[in-house]
Amino acid sequence: MFSFIDQNGCTVNLSFDEGPFEIEPKHVLILVRYNGKWLCTINKKRGVEFPGGKVELGESLQQAAIREVYEETAVHISDLKWFAYYVVHDKEPFCKAVFTGKVERIDEFIEEHETLGMTWLSTEELNNHPNLSFYMKDEGMKKMLQEVNQHEREW
C-alpha cells in the first residue's frame, strides 16, 4: 500500500492489490491512453483531470466507469481492467476504484455533457499542464501513472 497526504491535507491509501477494500468503492476513476496520449476531461471548476465520478444506484463499478467517461468526454470505452483503489480519509472517508480502458469510438462532444470537453495529453504535457485539478498534482497520481505504464507493457 502506498500512503500520502493529498492537496487538501487528507491521508490517502492507494493499493494495487484487488480487495478486500477498506471501504466499499462508490466512486470511479478511469485512465485511458490512446495513440500515446491520456484522455482527460476539463472540469468546469477543478480543471484538467481524468474522467470519473460517483456510482449511481443499481450500477456496477464498471458500468459507472463507462458512463462517466462518456458523459464527461463523449468517448466510448471498453475492455475495462480494474487497476487500483484509493481511500481518502476525509471527514467522511470514501473510496475510488481505478480502471483502465480502451477507446472504442469518439463521438462529437456537445455541450450537454457534464464538462467543458476533453483533451488528449502526453505524459509530459500532463505533468506540466498549468490547469490541473488538485488531485492530479498529488503523489498518488504520479504513482498510478508509473504503475499503469508498467502494467501496459505486461498487458
Q: What report would you give on this structure?
A:
Strands 1, 2, 3, 4, 5, 6, 7, 8 and 9 form a nine-stranded mixed beta sheet that branches. Helix content is 23%, strand content 40%. The chain has 155 residues and is of the alpha+beta class. It has one domain: Nucleoside Triphosphate Pyrophosphohydrolase.
Summary?
InterPro entries: Nudix_hydrolase, NUDIX_hydrolase-like_dom_sf, NUDIX_hydrolase_dom, Nudix_YtkD. GO terms for molecular function: hydrolase activity. The chain is of the alpha+beta class.
The Cα radius of gyration reads: 15 Å
Distance between the termini: 22 Å
CATH topology: Nucleoside Triphosphate Pyrophosphohydrolase
Number of domains: 1
The DSSP helix count reads 3
CATH class: Alpha Beta
Can you tell me the CATH architecture? Alpha-Beta Complex
Share of helical residues: 10-25%
CATH superfamily: Nucleoside Triphosphate Pyrophosphohydrolase
| Structural class computed from helices and strand pairing | alpha+beta
Give the topology string: H per helix, E per strand: EEEEEEHEEEHH
Low-confidence stretches: none
Shape: globular
Beta-strand percent range: 35-45%
Mean pLDDT figure = 90
Number of E strands: 9
Major beta sheet, specifics? Answer: 9 strands, mixed
